[in-house]
Write a structure and sequence with these properties.
It contains 3 helices and 4 strands. It is 44% helix and 17% strand. By secondary structure, the chain is an alpha+beta fold.
Amino acid sequence: AFARALLGTIHHRETAADHGILVTTSRFSAPARHFIVTAPRLDGVDFAGIVDWLRRAESGQRLEIRGATT
């Protein structure tokens, strides 16, 4: 439900964005992961991804997500 809502926000004319990232401190269900993977302007980061982001940021590396770089 959250992934669909975020995708709707990305595509909505007044709130349009190039890319959306759904972040969780848990894990995504298999259907949610499939939805995120098949949506070209949406990505998801779970707990392991957050930990990886923090390690990369701490070492000064660029944080890359499919379609977005921070």
